[in-house]
Amino acid sequence: xxxxxxxxxxxxxxxxxxxxxxxxxxxxxxxxxxxxxxxxxxxxxxxxxxxxxxxxxxxxxxxxxxxxxxxxxxxxxxxxxxxxxxxxxxxxxxxxxxxxxxxxxxxxxxxxxxxxxxxxxxxxxxxxxxxxxxxxxxxxxxxxxxxxxxxxxxxxxxxxxxxxxxxxxxxxxxxxxxxxxxxxxxxxxxxxxxxxxxxxxxxxxxxxxxxxxxxxxxxxxxxxxxxxxxxxxxxxxxxxxxxxxxxxxxxxxxxxxxxxxxxxxxxxxxxxxxxxxxxxxxxxxxxxxxxxxxxxxxxxxxxxxxxxxxxxxxxxxxxxxxxxxxxxxxxxxxxxxxxxxxxxxxxxxxxxxxxxxxxxxxxxxxxxx
Amino acid sequence: xxxxxxxxxxxxxxxxxxxxxxxxxxxxxxxxxxxxxxxxxxxxxxxxxxxxxxxxxxxxxxxxxxxxxxxxxxxxxxxxxxxxxxxxxxxxxxxxxxxxxxxxxxxxxxxxxxxxxxxxxxxxxxxxxxxxxxxxxxxxxxxxxxxxxxxxxxxxxxxxxxxxxxxxxxxxxxxxxxxxxxxxxxxxxxxxxxxxxxxxxxxxxxxxxxxxxxxxxxxxxxxxxxxxxxxxxxxxxxxxxxxxxxxxxxxxxxxxxxxxxxxxxxxxxxxxxxxxxxxxxxxxxxxxxxxxxxxxxxxxxxxxxxxxxxxxxxxxxxxxxxxxxxxxxxxxxxxxxxxxxxxxxxxxxxxxxxxxxxxxxxxxxxxxxxxxxxxxxxxxxxxxxxxxxxxxxxxxxxxxxxxxxxxxxxxxxxxxxxxxxxxxxxxxxxxxxxxxxxxxxxxxxxxxxxxxxxxxxxxxxxxxxxxxxxxxxxxxxxxxxxxx
Lengths: 369, 484
Description:
The complex is a heterodimer. By secondary structure, chain A is of the alpha/beta class. Chain A has helices at residues 5-22, 24-30, 103-114, 148-161, 208-228, 248-253, 262-276, 298-313, 331-339, 357-365, and strands at 41-47, 62-66, 74-77, 96-102, 127-138, 181-191, 193-201, 231-239, 243-246, 282-290, 316-322, 346-351. In chain A, strand 10 (282-290), helix 8 (298-313) and strand 11 form a beta-alpha-beta unit. The longest helix of chain A has 21 residues, at 208-228. Chain B has a five-stranded mixed sheet, covered by helices on one side. The model of chain B has no long low-confidence stretch (mean pLDDT 88). The interface between A and B is large, with 57 and 83 residues. Strand 3 (74-77) of chain A pairs antiparallel with strand 5 of chain B, so a sheet runs across the interface.
């Protein structure tokens, strides 16, 4: 029998990939995938990958069912009727295909679509990481790892050898000695590590809309950078007039009033790098998001910190200025004034709205640092 | 199992069983049972869904039978012996049904070879014209795959319709004013009222216009119409024809799902409980059988409905609960105890399996007692709550709903009304609306695919929320026009 399915399956995956690419800008802009991080796979709803046909709409559709219940009782929600495959034609249903795409694949698509250069990590192979791999069998171990087939096989062998096996009544009872367990060995893997430090202004002028942009953009930055490194460490710093390191949840949900002192965040970042991310071994990425407001007299101090402490330590420093109805947007001009437009490690981007995320990512990651 | 089946009078083509592992079974199932089918991405998609469903333990295919001479049946290697016996008995039921049910009588019994031929031809076209090119054509053809005339294998609708037959001379001829009665001039306005005359003239004009239409009768086999009249290259026509042939081959299976599954289930349970079961099999058998028969509120299980209806028929004909006397008897007591010991049950269900399809089957044999006993209800979509609610437990409503869903295999009825619309060679389809609107998004995409075949603007007229609406696609833009 000739098996063709591999070919068709591959073709299907290719089309899915094409669809994802086609709609990538939309996915990025709408932030649909956010919050699904942490799994290896994301489910992406792809509209109508099935063959379009003339078919009945939902309105007025229905069927015949069986069971208890009174007239008027709900039996299913409109969205649940997924499978519309003509069981006696009585199944209503709409069809949106959910396909699983691994984050890795998604990153690859992102990279292709944005034409992102691959990053050449520094500190390569200096750090070893231990990984475990199940590749052998032992005679002891936890029951959850018991290898049933091997255990059965050994029990069978023992019973045949000892003559207690009866083909008429092939009952195999393993004794403890027959039991076999899966076992792992530890392998060392060279690893290049990267750290991402997000900094955000949480003063009153940054509204939820701006934060949504930051969150969406950060997801894609994470996805890409994770695909380029074996291990990645993500840290968050928020600031108004003072700064502190926080967890992800706090990062996106804090809103403070009060003034803005960007230098405070830079100081925390500097400390963090000094303490945990030795630039010789770590590829450090800083992403700063702000609406561009800073106390006038703080600019000098901020820019000095940036120039002397941060830029020498990082692979890339990205400043994303999110347009807000309250912010003055001055800061980006201050940076431009100090460093000019073409700095090796510094990227500036103005993000006017969600639609701007796509281009902003390209700008940030386009240098391949 | 084969011997048992034959002693019960089942009659089938030679049946070849192949034992395959689950990956292979999923693959074969993805190809609709034909491992040699033409390549297309949707089979890959189907496969992904099947194998995922299997991996997560959501679904499992036990068997697959192909209507062919010889019949092919695939068994899953990992099934236990009880399952295999049950499945084989089930398979012989299907094989008998394929061979003897009238609706299958026109299907190609060498489909295995035919499908392999299709596969080869399409692969050859892919080599010559490129995979994408051919695949896109297949996509477009599949979009109208449902638009065939499922009864045409049995009815000769008409001879080849004339293509463009414009009677130049007739156009110039003035239409005679019809129906004028002789009258005195002062009575003329009353005997021949001008309004009535004008209305009749208009009617004749329209009639004449209709005669000049092409096709002169609405064509139900849209696929055939497109094949005959769309400007396709020979290889494209060939691909469309193959897909149309396959659509006709599969149509009876959709038309007889309830009966076919019911029939096979009836025989597996009969054979297994009388001959097939060893004491050790009982638990496994009961487990599998009840799993197959499980029903849910939102999905009427065709296996369950089919087997129970057949048993009901057998019981009724065994006890003579049919015919004039029984139907007219309104004494509940007498009805309940009615038993003429007619003993015609077995004979009757064999007759039913030969003649009926699902639609006729339900129409004829679904009774009010049956609906009550099996707690059937009809349900419908409630827009305000976005739920499906139980609508009714009344027999006529349930039956109506069921019949409705079985009519035209539950698909909208669509015909070609005009192949030369506006005298510009545009294609005008008509959805014969029967209460439920089309899904607009799908309709638009389908039009776009149809355009790729027809290469001139395409239209479909339907009803949308009670209004006659025409959707059009002209190659670049969609257009919606609602009647005022």
